[in-house]
Each structure stands twice: as structure tokens, then as C-alpha cells.
Amino acid sequence: MASPACPHTIVTTDIVGSSGGGRARQAYLDEVHDRVLATALAPFAPVFDRRDGDSATLAFAPDVAPARVLADFALRELVLALSTVNAVANAEHQLRLRVAVDHGQTVVERPHISGAALTRAARLRDAPELRAAMTGHPGVQIGLIVSDTVFETIVRSGERGLDAGLFRQVPVAVKDFSGSGWIHLPGEREPDAASSTVPASATEVIINVGTLHARDSVFGVRHA
Fold first, then answer.
1. Which residues, 6+ apart, have CB-to-CB distance to 91 below 8 Å?
2. Contact 202, 221 (CB under 8 A)
3. Which of 73, 117, 126, 210 could form a disulfide with 102 if both were Cys (CB 3.0 to 4.6 A apart)?
4. Which tens digits make up the pLDDT trace of 103-133?
């Protein structure tokens, strides 16, 4: 008998530029990708976790709030784990990820998984707009895109301090999916931001991903 569909939060990741640089670089990025996910997922275990070469599919159970998956896993633990491994890697071996998040009815029968949210997350992750955003911001380690559902029910309401102003809506048309997604690049800076001065009275803290060490900071959250 097939397992019943239950509301899961789906996260899918893919390594940016994994096919270039030869087999040794590819193997390194795959190994580091696995290590980063294992570190970031530790506080949330058990999680459905399927690896497909340079990509991964994760399904967080119904008892894990979607807001925790987005704010605590994707925008904190994953960013911090990436920052740690990239701090000791040269430019050629920097691990960069495209990450998509959706939520919906999903059937999990290990090692298989199915559901519309899974398909939507995969299509969002492969959106040309997200690829272009990562190309245009080579210093950014994570390119995050969330579905309309996640944005409207979690981000817009500011759950766990999420800042809707840091997300921008983009059209997405990939294979059989046509809709929109919301992109956020944690640590993104405008070209002239590095030379600008932030007033002491500023209410928003600008965080450099490469030098962050505080585990209680959340990217995508506006700090007062």
C-alpha cells in the first residue's frame, strides 16, 4: 500500500559550475557538498536525503515548521557550513549552491519521493533567472529561490525574522513549469556597497558571508 501524502518542506540543491575543471575538482566539490549538507542537517535529523551526483533532494517532515527550514536551515546552518569549507579553499574550489525551497503534499517511500512540490522545487532551482543571478554575483555562495507558496505564507509574514524586502520576484519557465519564484542572495552587495559608509545609526546590519562566525545570525533576517 502506498504511503499517504503529507505536507513536507522540500529543499533541493545543485552545485554551481560543477562540470568544469576536471575530475579532481568535480570529486572535491561533490565531497564537500556532502560534508556541508551533513553539517547543516545535523540539528534537523532525521531528514529524507537523496543525492544525485552534484545535486541533492531533501524532505523535511511535517513536524518541522517550514519557517525553520527556510530561516534556520537554508539561511543559517547551510550558509555557515559553506562559509567554513570555503574559508580554506582557493578560488577554483569554492563551493557555490543554487537552492530552492517549496512546501506541499509529498509522498515519501524511501528511497523514493514524489509530489508536485518536489517538481516545482527542481524547476525553480534550474531557473535561468537564478543562474544569471549567481553569474552576476560571483562572490555569493548561495543563490536561494522560494516558491510563491513559501513566500506568501512564510516570508511575507516575517516568520522567524525573515525580511521580505530581501527577496525579488522573477518569472520562471522551465520544462513543464511556468510561474514565478522569489530570489534572495545571502551576502549580496551592490557593486559600490563595499566602498560605502554605513552610518552608526543604521538599523540594518550588513554581514559579510566569508567572515561570519556567529551561529545565531540569520541571513535574510533584518537585524535591529
1. none
2. no
3. 117
4. 999 999 888 999 999 999 999 999 999 999 9
Are the C-beta atoms of 177 and 123 separated by less than 8 Å? yes
CA–CA gap between residue 79 and residue 92 (Å, rounded): 19
| pLDDT value of position 167 | 98
- Residue 53: which region, alpha, beta or left (left: phi > 0; alpha: psi -120 to 50)? left
Taking the C-alpha atoms of residue 97 and residue 104, their distance in angstroms, rounded to an integer, is 23
pTM of the model: 0.83
- What is the homologous superfamily of the domain 6-211 according to CATH? Nucleotide cyclase, GGDEF domain (3.30.70.1230)
Residues 194-217 as b/e (b if ≥16 CB within 10 A, e otherwise) read eeeeeeeeeeeeebebeebeeeee
